[in-house]
Each structure stands twice: as structure tokens, then as C-alpha cells.
Design a protein that fits this description.
heterodimer, A: alpha+beta, Ribosomal Protein S5, domain 2, seven-stranded mixed β-sheet, four-stranded antiparallel β-sheet, 8 helices, B: alpha+beta, OB fold (Dihydrolipoamide Acetyltransferase, E2P), five-stranded mixed barrel, four-stranded mixed β-sheet, 7 helices, 16 strands, flat
């Protein structure tokens, strides 16, 4: 259910006047709380909670996948093409919304984001999968190959949206990074038996996912009127006609971009957004990495900051 | 969490004591918040109400919420319970659906509430029966997504709430922002239409939806009454068009000098953040408490109120002021 015209106007006027409905400036973000290792049964997990905003829980699980006829038959799954190209190993992402959140569209006063929830989560899962299975993700996908072209690890990233408060993709990517940094997978060793290659999975030795620390983070810029805002609330998201998710790595390189919304934009605005993202994300990564890598299972807060 | 619960207890007490003049009446919350499994303080004879269960001869709470006592009946109302409604309640709702002769309105009750075409004031202002032309124009009165204030008129057989807007004070809302809080945290007041300082007004819906907007000027209020008398479309609420925005700079009811629209907007944001801050600490909302907290917060930029520590300080400071006021 959309907002009323009057509410949308009020929010848009606020953004034009640099005073958003919660008092932030257009380029201010909310505080995020990260907690890793929250699901004992998962190989890696993380929960991210934005102050008065979205909350997501990410669980990562690894499984051995044999690339035979059967899995080729199910070739519609994302990442399989890439997996075959490099000889095995892929990351499968799924984003689902908690039914109680989906029923209300995430809205707290009868108004949701103006988009169906399935649409939001579907888009989010698609982006996550595209990003993580590409070379730009920083993950050493080749390390997921056990026996080239025959056996590889599949990492399942399952995201559960516990609360919807706008800016879903950025939060999901942050939590996914947390979960993949937290991931411990059993060590697989390749054996040669009678001239045939076989593998053995260790029951006690584990290893980290190589390159998980290098996963980029995203900042999504939402255009409202002539300006753009980051980290919008659900109401502000409804006011926006165009948004651009920009994932940037620690070196300040743009790794991935995805646009949504029906609006069209002049190139100069896109450039401004990209320039902003390349400035902001390395700073954000520094704080996020500090939180993710330093913490065991304790909660640490990442302070939202302005660049 | 220790800090929050400390605030919770103390603030609940102060909020409760402070609003006594309003008279919560029988059945008001008795300042105690309980958690599931907590023993309820009861006298020797009592009646077991909703949200309670008996174990080993003790009456325990089955939900987290506030204890209500009506004579001997002891019940616990869950904090996140849906709004149940009582006749005469002022509520804020959002239109979800436009039907043939009714609007379905979300008021955070178990079912959508129903606003019949026959329960709204028709544009000409004269008391008359609605006809087909009115049915055809329903979407021009209220459309999907619109926010309105209204009153609970009664209940249908299936428990759905019937609403009406047959008064000048009810109708479409504009030029403001809506906040949703648990309905259990909104205290029943003498008036739910609250005029705060610095050009901000608020409608504290008993269903937990709060509408915060700028106070319309005296002229605007007069103009609205004039519209209501039937010359124009009453349903074009003031401020719903961009041309109405500069009017914010004009005189506000009760004050002669014009208020800066940006300052008014910032005060709206402050009130919004204060309400959310109080609700996060599970404090019962009353008009005077919100007014006092937002008065204390006025010295701070609205943005800073997002910081939980700052909010704690503001609430504690307000509490001290209220205690001094009482003495």
C-alpha cells in the first residue's frame, strides 16, 4: 500500500530542505548493529540490525556438489553456469521475508514500500547472487573446486528478512559479508585411489572461505526530487523513482552496479552517486571489517557516519 | 538493557502520576508492567481475566504487558496486542480499499475497519442521503493510502469496527508525518487532538497511530470551516497541494508572528523522535509527557535524538523537571 500524496510530499520537501523525517541529512546513515555466529547449526551466520530499520539474519551452509548429469539438469539455478566454467564451486543466494513482515509489507502504519515484498527480496537475491559469483566479489571461487569439473563446494547463503525498514540490499550485503567471514567449512583433501581421484572430508579440520574479507559493501543511492539520499526509511523509499546500488571494494573500485525504479537519470547524477559511493564505502569497510573480524560472537555496533 | 528497564519503571510511574488530573478511571493500567510467567499481585478474591493463567494456586501473566484491574477482574493487556476499539475512540487510519459504498481502513485492529459512505460528511455540507453520484466520486473524497482521523462508531457482528467522520474535527490529514506505536502505550486522554508548542500539533490515535503535523493557522481553520459549509471540496485538505506550503510561514493559531517553516519541520521531527524514543523504552504516552519531552529536546538538533544515549538523557532530564513541577 502506497503512502498518501500528502505524506510523500512532506517527506520529499524534507529531503529538499536537508531535514529528513527522522532528522538526518540526506547523506547520513543509521547505526547498524552486527552480530556474527548467531546460528549454531549454520557454518557461518550473521545478523544485522539497523536502528529503527531493516533487520536481516543470514545463514551460510556448505555442501559438496557433484557436477554430473543431475545437477546439469537443474541448470537454471544461479551460479551454475559460472561454476561449470571454472570447474565447480558456486554460491547460491536466496532472500526470503518473514511471513509476519511480508503480510504487512513491512509497513508500520499500513503503508509499505509501495513495492510488493516478493519483488524487493527477489531483486535483492538476484543482485547478491550476481555479485558474489563474479570475480569482483573478491572471493576466491577457485578455492571452492575440489576435483576440477567433477566435485566442488556449494555455499548456500540464506537470508531471512526479519524486519523491513528500507535500504534492504545494503544491509543484506553487509550481513552476508559478516556470515561469509564467519564461515568455517570442513577441509577437503583429494586422494588418488587406483588411479582415480577421490576426496575426503575432514571431520575436525576446518578452513575459512578464502577472500571473504575482500567482499565489497554497497551503498544504494535513492533519487528523490533533484537530490539523492542514502539509507532511506520505507517512507522515503516510496518517494524515490530511481535507485542505484553501487558496490565498492576497499581499494575504492566499483565492483557492481544495479539500478531499479522506473525513473531515468542524467549521467551527471549517476557520476555524482558513484563518486560519493567510492568515497564512502572504503571508510564503511574499514569500520565493518573491524567489527566483523575482531568480534567473536559478541555484539558490536558500527556507528553510522557521514562522509 | 539494565539502563532501559530502569527508565521503564521510573518513567511509567512518573507518567502515571503526572496524568492523574485527567482521570484514567477504572480499568486504567496500574503502573505495573509484567512479563510472561510473572506472578500478579492479587488480593484474596479475584476474577481471572485475559492474559493470565493459574499455576500452583498463583495467578501468573501469560503475556508481556500492563496489568488492568476492573473491580475484582485482573487482566493483562499485551504490549503488542492489536487494537480492540471502544465506541467513541479517536483513531488515525489509512485507507486500504475503496468499495462500492464503503472504505476499508487500516487502524491496526484485527480486521480492517469500515467507513461507510453514509458515515462521512458529504461535500455540500447539508445533511442528506448519499446517492449514486456520491458513490461514483468516492475516490475523490478518500483514495487508497490517504490518512484520516475518525471516531469509532460501533461494531459489526463479526467484530469489525465501524468508523465515522461526521464532525468538523475529523477528516483527511496532510502536511505531516505518521508514526505507529503499540496501541497499549497510548493513554486515554480528555482530548486526543493535542496542540504542542512551536507550531506543532498531534493527533494521538487510540489505535496507536500518531499523526504529527504543523498547527494550521487561524485563517486556515476558518477557511476549512468555510469549505465545510459547502462552497468547495472539503476533502482537499489544507496543505495537500504544493501551493499551500508557503502558508506555513504565516501566522499560526495563537501566535501573531510567523514561524519559520523549517523550524516547525524540525520540531515535528523532534516530536516524532521523542515519541519513538519513549515507545522504545516502553513508556506510556500522554499529551503532557510528549509535550514535556519535546520541550526538553528543543535545545538539541533533531538528528541527535536518534542516539539512544542522548534520548536517555533527555528523558531523565524531563523526569527531574516533572518531579520538581510536582513538588
Amino acid at each position: 500500500m502506497p503512502l498518501s500524496t500528502a505524506e510523500r510530499l512532506f517527506a520529499a520537501e524534507g529531503i529538499a530542505a536537508s531535514l529528513r523525517i527522522d532528522g538526518r541529512d540526506p547523506l547520513d546513515a543509521r547505526t547498524v548493529e552486527l552480530e556474527t555466529g548467531v546460528i549454531l547449526q549454520a557454518s557461518g551466520s550473521c545478523r544485522a540490525r539497523v536502528h529503527r530499520g531493516s533487520q536481516v539474519l543470514v545463514g551460510a551452509k556448505v555442501a559438496i556438489e557433484t557436477l554430473d548429469g543431475a545437477s546439469l539438469g537443474a541448470g537454471t539455478s544461479t551460479g551454475l553456469g559460472a561454476a561449470l566454467g571454472q570447474g565447480g564451486g558456486r554460491i547460491v543466494c536466496q532472500v526470503v521475508c518473514d511471513p509476519s513482515v511480508a503480510a504487512t509489507g513491512g509497513g508500520r502504519c499500513g503503508a509499505g514500500s509501495g513495492r510488493p515484498v516478493d519483488d524487493l527480496t527477489g531483486e535483492c537475491g538476484q543482485r547478491l547472487s550476481e555479485l558474489l559469483n563474479s570475480a569482483a566479489s573478491g572471493i576466491d571461487l577457485a578455492s571452492l573446486v575440489v576435483i576440477p569439473h567433477r566435485v566442488g563446494w556449494t555455499v548456500y547463503v540464506d537470508v531471512l528478512v526479519l524486519d523491513l525498514g528500507g535500504n534492504l540490499f545494503d544491509v543484506v550485503l553487509l550481513a552476508t559479508k559478516g556470515a561469509l567471514c564467519n564461515l568455517r567449512m570442513p577441509r577437503a583433501t583429494v586422494l588418488s585411489v587406483d588411479g582415480k581421484q577421490d576426496y575426503d572430508i575432514s571431520s575436525h579440520e576446518t578452513e575459512r572461505l578464502r577472500g571473504a574479507e575482500a567482499i565489497p559493501l554497497a551503498v544504494t543511492c535513492y533519487r528523490v526530487g533533484r537530490r539523492f539520499v542514502i539509507d532511506p526509511t520505507l517512507e522515503e523509499e516510496d518517494c524515490s523513482d530511481l535507485s542505484l546500488a553501487i558496490a565498492v571494494n576497499a581499494a575504492g573500485q566499483v565492483c557492481y552496479m544495479s539500478k531499479s525504479g522506473n525513473g531515468a537519470s542524467h549521467g551527471s547524477l549517476i557520476k555524482t552517486m558513484m563518486a560519493f559511493a567510492t568515497r564512502r564505502v572504503p571508510e564503511l569497510l574499514r569500520v565493518a571489517d573491524h567489527c566483523i573480524l575482531q568480534q567473536g560472537t559478541r555484539t558490536r555496533a558500527i556507528q553510522g557516519f557521514k562522509v | 538493557m539494565a539502563r532501559a528497564s530502569h527508565l521503564l519503571d521510573s518513567s511509567l510511574d512518573s507518567a502515571d502520576g503526572f496524568t492523574d488530573p485527567h482521570g484514567a478511571g477504572a480499568g486504567g493500567p496500574s503502573a505495573d508492567t509484567v512479563t510472561p510467567g510473572q506472578a500478579l499481585d492479587v488480593e484474596t478474591t479475584y476474577l481471572k481475566g485475559h492474559g493470565t493463567f493459574l499455576e500452583d494456586g498463583q495467578l501468573l501473566s501469560s503475556v508481556a504487558g500492563t496489568v488492568y484491574r476492573v473491580n475484582k477482574l485482573v487482566s493483562v493487556k499485551a504490549i503488542h496486542a492489536r487494537y480492540s476499539g471502544e465506541i467513541g475512540d479517536v483513531v488515525v487510519g489509512r485507507i486500504m480499499e475503496v468499495g462500492s459504498n464503503r472504505w476499508c481502513v487500516d487502524i491496526s485492529a484485527r480486521q480492517s475497519a469500515i467507513l461507510l459512505l453514509s458515515s462521512v460528511n458529504l461535500p455540500t455540507g447539508i445533511h442528506r442521503r448519499s446517492d449514486e453520484t456520491d458513490e461514483a466520486k468516492m475516490r475523490s473524497y478518500f483514495r487508497e493510502g490517504d490518512v484520516l482521523s475518525c471516531e469509532v462508531q460501533g461494531f459489526y457482528q463479526d467484530g469489525a469496527i465501524a468508523l465515522h467522520t461526521r464532525s468538523l474535527k475529523y477528516g483527511k490529514l496532510a502536511d505531516g508525518v505518521m508514526v505507529a506505536v503499540p496501541s497499549a502505550l497510548v493513554k486515554r486522554l480528555k482530548s486526543h487532538f493535542v496542540v504542542l508548542d512551536h507550531g506543532v500539533s498531534m493527533i494521538l490515535g487510540l489505535n496507536g497511530y500518531v499523526w504529527i503535523s504543523r498547527t494550521p493557522s487561524a485563517q486556515e481553520q476558518k477557511a476549512q470551516a468555510h469549505l465545510f459549509a459547502g462552497h468547495h471540496n472539503f476533502y482537499d485538505a489544507p496543505g495537500s497541494t504544493p501551493t499551500a506550503a508557503p502558508k506555513a510561514a504565516e501566522a499560526v493559531a495563537g501566535a501573531d508572528e510567523p514561524l519559520d517553516p523549517h523550524a516547525v519541520r524540525e520540531q515535528i521531527v523532534r516530536v516524532r523522535n521523542c515519541i519513538l524514543g519513549l515507545v522504545e523504552r516502553k513508556v506510556m504516552l500522554t499529551d503532557q509527557l510528549i509535550a514535556a519531552v519535546s520541550r526538553t529536546a528543543r535545545s538539541l538538533p533533531a538528528k541527535q535524538l536518534l542516539d539512544p544515549d542522548v534520548m536517555d538523557t533527555v528523558i531523565l532530564e524531563t523526569r527531574e523537571q516533572l518531579q520538581q513541577h510536582d513538588e
